[in-house]
Structures are given as C-alpha cells and as structure tokens.
Amino acid sequence: MKLKTVILLAITSIFISSHNQAQNSLSPKPGGFDSDKDLLLAHYDCKTDVDDLQSVAAFATVLSHNRYSEINYHAVAGAYGIQDGLYVPPNDLFNLAFGDNWSDAHKDFQKAVDHVKTMASAVLKNQGDIWIAEAGQSDFSAALIQAITADLPDVNVSKRIHLVQHSDWNEEVTAPAALDYVKTTIDYHKIADGNAVGNGTPGFRSAEFTGWKDKISNPELIAIWKLAIELSNQYNGKEGRYHNEAISAGGLDFSDTSEVCWILGLQDIRDSEQFFNLFSD
C-alpha cells in the first residue's frame, strides 16, 4: 500500500473517530430523563444577573437538536426568591425562544403556578416524572410542588419530582421555608457549580469564548442568541443589577444550562466551546 494511501486512511479514521465521539457525547446516560413521558421545567429567576438570558438561548439551542426537539418542556420567567435588586425583563427573548410555551411568574405568580401545575399533574397521571432545572431560586418550585401535592396527594413526589440546583447563592436567597420544603419533600439534587470548568459539570461561563457565530447557522437560533446578548449588554450591571464580568468582557455566561445538561445526561460536556461544537448546525 502506498504511503499516500496509508496517510489518507489514517486521517479518515481520525475524522470518523472524532465525529463518533461528538455524537456519543450527546447520548443520554441511563436512569435520567425519559423523553417519551417526562416533563422538563426550566425555571429562570432573571434577577439580577443577566446570565439567565444567555441560558435561555442555550436551552433553545439544545431543543433545536433533532435528538431533543420532541422533549416535553415548559419554561418559567420570574422564578426568583428573596434577593434584592431589579428584574431583568426577558419577555421578548422568551417569546422568541419558546413561543407560547412559557409562563410569566413575575407578572402573575399564582397564574403561573396554576398553569404549570396543570401541565405537571397531567404528566404525573400518565406515569411520567417532572424534572426541574432550577436556574434561580426555589420559591416558585416550592409553591408549584405544594399545589401538585394538594391535587394529587397519592403521588410519591419524593420519587417522581426531581429538582436540580447548581448554585450556593441561589440556595442562600431562596426563602428558608421554601428551600427546606423542596429539599425534604422531593428528589433534590445539588450539582457542582456551572460557572467553573472541570468540577464534574459543564462550565459555561467564559470571558474568552466568543466563537458561537462560527458554529450556529440556523437563522432562528442566531436571532435568539443576538437578542440574548443584546439584552445582556443592555441590563448587565445597570441600576444596581449584578455586574457579570464575563459578559462585560465580551464573553458568554449560560451557566444555568448545567442543570439541563445534567438532567439530559450531558454532564460530561466540558465548556462553552464543546457545547457549541456538539450543538453546531
């Protein structure tokens, strides 16, 4: 066999191996979310850090992938706790990313609880589980779970409702009674912080990474990311809101997506660059 042919075969083998590794990274781990019957709830506080906006764009990116496009999900804005500071208005972004499939707990907390309870109860009655990606505090989740248990007292929520939290600060500014309730009532998972790389969960906060435009060509996703970044820059650190240094440096912070990745069995994604490599068009 000629040397040129051997080199060509070796390069081809490396390419196929790399491609397969990328695809395998999108394979769910066993024992987690069941896309055939479960419901994924993404609860965003949007107060006062703008990272929720970019986390919304990242979640929309996950949902655009053919492996996850049929997931039964619902998003909630305004799922905040007892922290001080101003709200970051996300409605235009939520409409663009999720259409009608979101609730506004900032505008009407009880209406949002009732709406999500109806969805969740239907899933539980059909033997599905509820998975909550807590991209904020647990006050809304506590009210939701209390409403569900009032309607479905026979459901074992300690095994059927799963909540995933990644942030110490989010726990600290959850109303103590609400935090105690979710920790003792349902299947509560505290995972490593999604702001850091190399701690066992994806690290999606980077002042240096800006290469998302090279990976995304879907016009709808481009529009979502552009709006998320525009709103992030508009509200970041303004009027006493939290100053996100990674975003002000021109980078990205979608750290609250670490919970979604954990739920879907994608906790082995390392960082922002690998995320966009895996979910590129």
Tell me about this structure.
The chain is α/β, with parallel strands linked by helices and 281 residues long. Helix content is 45%, strand content 12%. It is built from 12 helices and 8 strands. It has helices spanning 3-24, 51-64, 91-98, 109-125, 139-151, 157-160, 168-172, 176-185, 219-235, 245-248, 258-263, 272-278; strands spanning 39-44, 73-77, 102-104, 130-135, 161-165, 187-190, 205-206, 252-253. The strands form 2 sheets. It has a 6-stranded parallel beta sheet, sandwiched between helices. A two-stranded antiparallel sheet has the order 7-8. The relative contact order is 0.18. Mean pLDDT is 91; it is low at 1-25.
What is this structure's SSE topology?
Layout (H helix, E strand, L loop, with lengths): L2 H22 L14 E6 L6 H14 L8 E5 L13 H8 L3 E3 L4 H17 L4 E6 L3 H13 L5 H4 E5 L2 H5 L3 H10 L1 E4 L14 E2 L12 H17 L9 H4 L3 E2 L4 H6 L8 H7 L3
Parallel strand pairs: 1-2, 1-4, 2-3, 4-5, 5-6
Antiparallel strand pairs: 7-8
Helix pairs in contact: 2-3, 2-9, 3-9, 4-5, 5-8
Entry summary:
The protein has 281 residues and is of the alpha/beta class. It is built from 12 helices and 8 strands. The chain has one domain (33-278): Inosine-uridine Nucleoside N-ribohydrolase, Chain A (Alpha-Beta Complex).
